[in-house]
Structure to design on (550 residues):
């Protein structure tokens, strides 16, 4: 689906959105008449210091408005911008700042939903889609940490060998199915049905804890993470208890 | 009241292992590890690539005391898989941060990482996202999460994004903080954009001195375990909160940085704009002289 088709299917009741070469921002109307904020990184562009500060500023404005309306983050990006200028200026802080702004918005009462409808990779993926409370995707989305050719260079394995290994495990290779199995994506929407009710269903889910490692265990793509984290929590609590009573 | 004693032997942070760093950082004999190497919780994925596992998966997590105060600690081992985040490695840190929130105890993260471990990239990437969320949830409950950067592998990729969520960052000259590594930029954009073999360029673009000068790190220390210890004790006296006011201040701080330095072609130009007298001499300055020269640096107090 193109971005225009997605927006038309999501917001048949109206929307007022402005797009630039790399970002989108504005508001739309939900089926029940309530407003929803929309922002995102679009057109497969990389996310650098300039885009990140713009988007974060928009999120902070929304939080300060106090309207507690949901925020939809649309994502079709490349990776972080790999340039001398971005790193010289401290890109890690800008990407973290954007992620923090989204986490802050959620903590301050805004539902945050990421919609991955194209590509995204590495730092750009972490700072946008993966910072949302709930991440959904459309078929054809292409999340990645690194593309296979680059991965082949770093791991010194041929692409054919990597492809063969990717058949055996969802843990490393790029792709939507693997990210779903690992628990990173809550649900893949049906693009043949209207998107507005599918968004409404996500918005009706109760607020909760980070459930991604539990989903990864249930789906078999990430069997150990939830168990290891829970064991560390229990061991820390026991050590804390011993210190209190010792 | 037990005696607070630190290990006083001189130790290079850069050269030390993760376990040596923890021993030198905390009060002597106070550290106890969670899921230690004797439990052999190895990566379930490295054997697919015929790569050797390590019994702690390259990260040590546990609890100790710092100047008498209980603190949770994670230390990455840069000499195993470049300190990279895999499924088990990441989950140990996620658990530690969730415990910090529940128990109201501060956290020290001793970064030494190239980022996500590519052999388990999806699990590593999700671990980064889970860790960042856990850091912010802990900080919103008032917990300090302090990052220490000065290891062999630097603090790259997803590790640098986690560092960006910390309430305070301590860095040495040897510490490098950056999303894309030098080789990645060169591979993607060409040697004209970034020559990864030009070590001086790497250090002045990503190294501890530059990061301290632009306010990307809060404290600059010698490459000495005791210096990191003293700085960590001070950092835990701050407050770790992360609210609208803090993020608004960070927004202003980062926007100001783009305005002030956004046109600079090289770190030396930024240092010049900061009013440093002979900026080209800066990389060679010893710590005392560097800190005096850095007097008018950008800071991030209450804006991180």
């Amino acid at each position: 689906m193109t971005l225009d088709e997605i927006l038309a299917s999501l917001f048949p009741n109206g929307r007022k959105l402005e797009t630039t070469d790399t970002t989108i921002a504005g508001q739309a109307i939900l089926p029940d008449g309530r407003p929803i904020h929309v922002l995102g990184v679009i057109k497969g562009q990389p996310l650098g210091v300039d885009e990140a500060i713009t988007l974060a500023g928009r999120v902070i404005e929304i939080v300060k408005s106090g309207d507690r309306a949901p925020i939809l983050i649309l994502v079709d990006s490349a990776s972080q911008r790999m340039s001398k200028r971005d790193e010289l200026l401290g890109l890690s802080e800008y990407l973290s700042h954007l992620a923090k702004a989204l986490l802050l918005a959620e903590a301050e009462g805004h539902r945050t939903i990421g919609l991955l409808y194209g590509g995204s990779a590495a730092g750009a993926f972490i700072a946008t889609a993966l910072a949302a409370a709930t991440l959904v995707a459309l078929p054809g989305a292409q999340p990645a940490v690194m593309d296979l050719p680059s991965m082949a260079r770093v791991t010194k394995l041929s692409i054919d060998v990597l492809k063969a290994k990717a058949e055996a495990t969802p843990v490393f290779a790029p792709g939507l199915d693997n990210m779903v199995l690992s628990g990173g994506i809550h649900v893949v929407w049906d693009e043949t049905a209207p998107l507005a009710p599918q968004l409404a269903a996500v918005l009706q889910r109760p607020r909760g804890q980070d459930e991604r490692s539990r989903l990864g265990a249930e789906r078999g793509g990430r069997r150990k993470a939830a168990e290891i984290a829970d064991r560390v929590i229990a061991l820390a609590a026991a050590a804390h208890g011993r210190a209190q009573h010792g | 009241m037990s005696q607070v004693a630190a290990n006083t032997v001189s130790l290079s942070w850069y050269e030390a292992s993760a376990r040596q760093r923890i021993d030198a950082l905390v009060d002597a004999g106070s550290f106890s590890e969670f899921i230690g190497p004797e439990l052999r919780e190895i990566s379930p994925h490295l054997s697919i690539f015929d790569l050797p596992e390590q019994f702690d998966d390259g990260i040590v997590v546990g609890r100790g005391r710092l100047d008498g105060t209980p603190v949770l600690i994670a230390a990455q081992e840069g000499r195993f898989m470049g300190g990279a985040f895999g499924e088990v490695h990441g989950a140990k840190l996620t658990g530690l941060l969730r415990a910090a929130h529940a128990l109201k105890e501060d956290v020290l993260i001793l970064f030494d990482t190239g980022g996500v471990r590519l052999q388990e990239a999806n699990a590593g990437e999700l671990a980064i996202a889970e860790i960042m969320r856990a850091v912010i949830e802990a900080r919103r409950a008032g917990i300090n999460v302090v990052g220490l950067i000065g290891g062999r592998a630097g603090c790259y990729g997803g590790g640098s994004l986690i560092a960006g969520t910390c309430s305070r960052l301590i860095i040495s000259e040897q510490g490098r903080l950056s999303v894309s590594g030098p080789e990645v930029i060169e591979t993607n954009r060409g040697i004209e954009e970034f020559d990864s073999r030009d070590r001086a360029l790497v250090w002045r673009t990503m190294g501890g001195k530059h990061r301290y000068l632009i306010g990307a790190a809060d404290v600059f220390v010698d490459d000495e375990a005791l210096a990191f210890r003293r700085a960590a004790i001070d950092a835990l006296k701050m407050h770790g909160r992360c609210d609208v006011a803090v993020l608004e201040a960070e927004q202003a701080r980062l926007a100001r940085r783009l305005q002030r330095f956004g046109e600079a072609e090289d770190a030396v130009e930024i240092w010049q704009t900061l009013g440093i007298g002979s900026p080209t001499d800066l990389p060679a300055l010893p710590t005392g002289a560097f800190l005096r020269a850095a007097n008018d640096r950008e800071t991030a107090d209450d804006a991180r």
About this structure: Chain A touches chain B through 83 residues (CB under 8 Å). The longest strand of chain A covers residues 35-47.
